[in-house]
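As noted in the main text, all predictions were made from sequence alone. Below is one such record, for SPRY domain-containing SOCS box protein 3.
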Amino acid sequence: MTIQEGRNAKQPTSHSIGPGSHLATSTSTTNNTSRSNGVLSAFFGSLTAGASAARSASHHNHHQPSAEQQEPIPTPPQHQQPAIAVPVVEEAAAAAVAMVGVASDNNNQQPFRGERPLQNGCEDKWSWSKRDRSKEVWLSGANNRTVHFHPNWSKGTAGIRGTRVLNNGRYYWELSVSQRVFGTSMMFGIGTKKARLHVNAFTNLLGEDKNGWGLSHKGLLWHGGIARNYTKRFKENQATRIGILFDGVAGTLTYYKDDVCLGIAFRGLNEIREPLYPVVCSTAAKTEMVLTESRRDFVNLQDRCRAVIIKHIKTREKLDRLNLPYCITNYLAEALSDCTTPVTPLEQQLIDYYLF
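Prediction:
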């Protein structure tokens, strides 16, 4: 007999798409076309030196008890500093210094000052992967942004990975979590492709090994199988909003909860060479998480120009009609994609094109 989390709860009211399912522009005005052409002219003028340099370079070179009976998640001994998390990067203890997660105490938690992070950046159009997920995860909503965990009942831990590759950039995303906050573990964070997305047991899945970095709803940070105190436990059966700021330049991961910054959780992420992705997971039945906001910072001025161009072009078909050079078309098309590749400066694309 399988023990279940939240068996008798109501079914989610939104329309869900089961595993293996697939979810399913207007003519530009004359003014939009003029603005697009003006931006394109300025954009291409700024690229002349980069393209010349690139051409020059080319020649130069189990049974589960009820919630009340569950064993407590290990917490640090009282004599340790609970505000310091030391997640392990490699299995060897000697490598622990390569990754140090710092958790803020409550005195350092601050409300937003004005706008949310990266509001001067641009919208990032990633979504949840239909392929990289547990069979106990269903997707629905616009652009697959709504995740339903264990839509019938729970007999393990289910996770799903986002399509966005995070390395080297700065990204912020927010999750609206339904009131069904309970169970062994609901987790939010990042992971590599090696991080497991399903296990037939109630566990803290994200951060069980060196391939994940996660925050559980019990206020604990997990990495390398080690838990450290970070913030207060979330209130059960109460909806909440979680924000996550990934800074690939500084190598940090910071969490926000209901407009309060909880402080830096993990450091050293700029040393990770494998692709990193957003990840969420849950043991609780019929829980729902919605990706309500996703933004990224601009890499450079060209990236900002590209965002303006794409705002007017909007579709790949219209982009192809411009008959631009292959490298520039590819660079612009990246902004129309599902974010499965890192944001790459145009200069690097030009160099790759001419050298390889």
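The radius of gyration is 22 Å. The longest helix spans residues 30-45. These features were considered when defining construct boundaries for the mutagenesis experiments described in Section 2.9.
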